[in-house]
Amino acid sequence: MKAVRIATRQSPLALWQARHVASLLSQVHPGLECTLVEMTTAGDRFLSAPLSTVGGKGLFVKEIEQSLLDGRADLAVHSLKDMTSVLPAGLLLAAVPKREDPRDAFCSPAGLSLEMLPKGARVGTSSLRRSCILRSRRPDLEIISLRGNVQTRLARTREMGLHGAVLAFAGLKRLGLETEITEVLPTSVSLPAVGQGVLAIQCRTEDSGVRGLLAALEDDTTRIAVTAERAFMARLEGGCTVPLAGHATVEGGTVLLRGLVGRPDGTKVVEGERSGPVETALAVGEALAEELLSRGAAEILRDFGRAHPVPES
Ligand SMILES: NCc1[nH]cc(CCC(=O)O)c1CC(=O)O
């Protein structure tokens, strides 16, 4: 193959990620020509529209996936965090490059850390997971809905005079906005979303030419971690309607997965961890999901599942 068309959203972060993959591909396949096919998704339109009942994960990926199925593009770059656990027939998660820092970051215009926040402080996020985790630790905090791309959210945080906002470290770093971070939140404080910090490169299952090119970008450790995380999410489906966190690390042939399901207001959180040989990553994810379901997550899903169709971020 001499050329590939890469489908991407048009947000600054999505464009950075698509260009990054283009640059990785040209490094490992000198002479390969990469062009971007820029698209607007329902998720992008939704960001500027009033909150409606449209919703869920997949909002940012559906049109892009369709462009692959239609043959308008050869591969697509997504944030894995934005992808549903089931991919459309005919498409494949062909490669996951090495993960960027998966942690959440607190950005406070006043330079405050989470600990320093005064009682009743106003913190921006539109993620159910982040709201739940923040409220479970600090029930006094007022969570302010914050939508839009990374730069918009930072600007709104200042304009609205919020004490701070929680965003993904990976997105801030890719955009050169680390200087906005006042505190990187340890995973023990804010357990990341499934797939956070990971780029997902997707192509048609039957396209062996593109699959061959993408194989060089695959990172085995990242694949093991996301296999466990996504198996956990798949069993609990509704990662977009119920606060859900899942984060796996790999060390010396063992994968360790930590997971959390909670009520949106943080009044209940069910958490746990499981580990096993890396070959059993899928089973580790499923087993942790079963355990959390039996310890109270089933009730949370029953009470809140699909009732609050807000995209996770
Ligand atoms: N939901 C939007 C989104 N999807 C992926 C990232 C960050 C990059 C990543 O996790 O790889 C973000 C921004 C954020 O949550 O602050």
TrEMBL record:
PROSITE patterns, A to Z: PORPHOBILINOGEN_DEAM
Domain Porphobilinogen deaminase C-terminal: from-to ranges: 225-293
Broadest EC class assigned to this enzyme: transferase
Domain of life: Bacteria
NCBIfam families: hemC
HAMAP family the record matches: Porphobil_deam
Annotated protein name in UniProt: Porphobilinogen deaminase
Species classification: Bacteria, Pseudomonadati, Myxococcota, Myxococcia, Myxococcales
Gene coding for it: hemC
